[in-house]
Design goal:
alpha/beta; 13 strands; about 20% strand; about 400 residues; TIM Barrel; binds iron/sulfur cluster; nine-stranded mixed β-sheet
Length: about 400
Amino acid sequence: MAKQAFPELTTTFLREKLEALGSQFGFSSEPYLALARQYLHSDEEDVPAAETNLRHYEADVGFPGSGGRPHGIERLYKRTLVVEPTLACAAHCRFCIRANYARHNLSEVELREIAKYCGSGSHREELTEVLITGGDALLVPHQVEYLLRALMRYAPNIRIARIATRIPLHDPGRVDGKLLRLFEGKLPLRLELTTQINHRVELFPEVIEALRRIMDHGVAIYAQNIVLRGVNDNLAALVDLYDLLRQIGIEAHYLFHCVPMEGTGHFRTTLQETIELAKRLTCGGHISGRAKPMLAAMTDIGKIVLYDGVIVERDNRHILLQSHYRLEDRQCWNPAWQLPKTAEVDRDGYLRVWYLDGAESVETAGFGSEPAVAPKYGLEFKGATIALSRCE
Ligand code: SF4
């Protein structure tokens, strides 16, 4: 499989904010770069690097009715099925794991088959959650609504539906009455919204307002964030981000080490840097215990939380990580799942996987010593200041 083109794609909202940040702070300032690096194509993406993966893992599920074209559903875990109604997004995040996925749009027939799969056989006992992602699930709210209604009919075992989106950050104006109708029906399942926010600069007043409109419908929002070099790979930026998320009422979930996908090498810190950063963030009294994220790596066998003892061995840039997933469980939940070449089974039956580390950067020398104070612009930056005063 060859790398697909991932053209630069931004929204009018993002372009206007980039222009405003550049004009206010300069086009090489931290607030401008924190947004620009996430969305504007960089020649660094095209530099040959050790990161050559085109997918983060292979977990497609074949299911009756897919006509031999299993796409749009993935399963790695017992309780949760990942459904991707579309792979389109309003903007293309340059570090995204979806960059190399073939585009698709699931039809109502396919969505109905997925709901039936969730409620059939042993899946009825095991599956309790769906993660409706993409692409951006809120680009196709009618498909999401169709799936939710089909799940209620065919799979009452699904008690929680999580919807993944960056629409409130990419185009907050889309979070209007029409879109919010998705959250208005009294559904007999818990709806949660997951988003990704990597720097406080993204939380413009319009973005916070859009997130609030969703929360006002009783939907819990949580954020997953990625440590990205040149965006948020310092303590001050992360303290600032998690403080603001807490004030807005967005829960912290995973803080990811940037996944080793082709074209992402320039974003990737080393795992050790990231562990040190997360340690200082969560163990230094800098943020509330209620705002602390869980550090994880996205590997070829799924997410591995970086607890003590998870790193088993190092071989130059490759790191052997210990999981507590079992091969037999995986293949029981998803018979199509195969052990990747990078993985092995330990003598207790648990999976281990070799994970490509990020490269050292000269720019990060002295990394561990920077202060945990908000950068100066944090007090002056209009969007952030307004956001804080709205939340206090
Ligand atoms: S919106 Fe989500 S799926 Fe789409 S490019 Fe960004 S991170 Fe990837």
